[in-house]
Amino acid sequence: MIEAQALRKAYGDFEAVKGIDVSVERGEAFGFLGPNGAGKSSTMRMVAAVSPLTGGSLRILGLDPESDGPAIRARIGVCPQEDSLDGDLTVRDNLVVYARYFGIGRRDAARKADELLEFVKLTEKAHGMVEDLSGGMKRRLTIARSLVNEPELLLLDEPTTGLDPQARHVVWDQLHRLKQTGVTIVLTTHYMDEAEQLCDRLVVMDGGLIAAEGSPLSLIARYSTREVVELRMGVGENEAAAERVEDLAERVEVLPDRVLLYVADGEKVVEEAMARGLEPRSTLVRRSSLEDVFLRLTGRSLDA
């Protein structure tokens, strides 16, 4: 569905994407994980055939975005990072009018709009105005709009940014359902839990480069331990605490607000740390996550 080799994107002297290789198979959910400024959105704009590449090669659905842009855009759906809904139209008319841009007849556009409103659970809001929708509802409507042309490939740029946890889970459920219908999904996110929930495979991006690639579980297994102990000490006490327990862990990371110990058995390490007289304000034992992978690869947390 997507094949990129040595893909580059520059804006003047600034190189946002510095030569990446990406391959996405039909039917999978593929993710670009990384902080703001990593090059994720620039990559997505090239894949959406709306931003010319600076270097390398790119094929979307077997087509060249340089010469086949209109043909590609007719077969993909795009859910941008910022909602661009028409506030002067009703919820339903946002879908009907957008469908007409693809040459879909009026009757078929109306039928498709009703189907999509049912899919994203907005049927009861069909005749209301967009401005009356909550943030989560607007996001669901934007996703519905990206599906009016029955795309083979759906691109989602930060699909749940700004949503509360409940709204995020509703969107995740709809994307899971969509994937089951055979749509290939490519998304960018800086949420580790979102990437773990939605992606069959992903790349970790930082500074315009790919730092690692694989399934969420394989990346965690490759770059982290089974469990992580978080020790929250007093102000200015983290460095000293880390030195006292560094021999208990495979790896130790000192963050401004906590010490992370990468271990196989978290509860055992907590007991040993306490036996050494450590008195953290709080302790937490959790499983490793993609944020731990990012910290290992780049030396900083994902939200830094």
TrEMBL record:
Alphabetized InterPro entries for the sequence: AAA+_ATPase, ABC_transporter-like_ATP-bd, ABC_transporter-like_CS, ABC_transporter_ATP-binding, P-loop_NTPase
GO molecular function: ATP binding; ATP hydrolysis activity
Gene Ontology CC entries for this record: plasma membrane
Topology within the bilayer: Peripheral membrane protein
Any Pfam family the entry gives: ABC_tran
Major site of localization recorded for this protein: membrane
Source superkingdom: Bacteria
The ABC transporter domain, residue ranges: 2-232
One Gene Ontology term from the biological process aspect of the record: response to antibiotic
Subcellular location per the Swiss-Prot or TrEMBL entry: Cell membrane
Family named by the database record: Belongs to the ABC transporter superfamily.
Protein name as annotated: ABC transporter ATP-binding protein
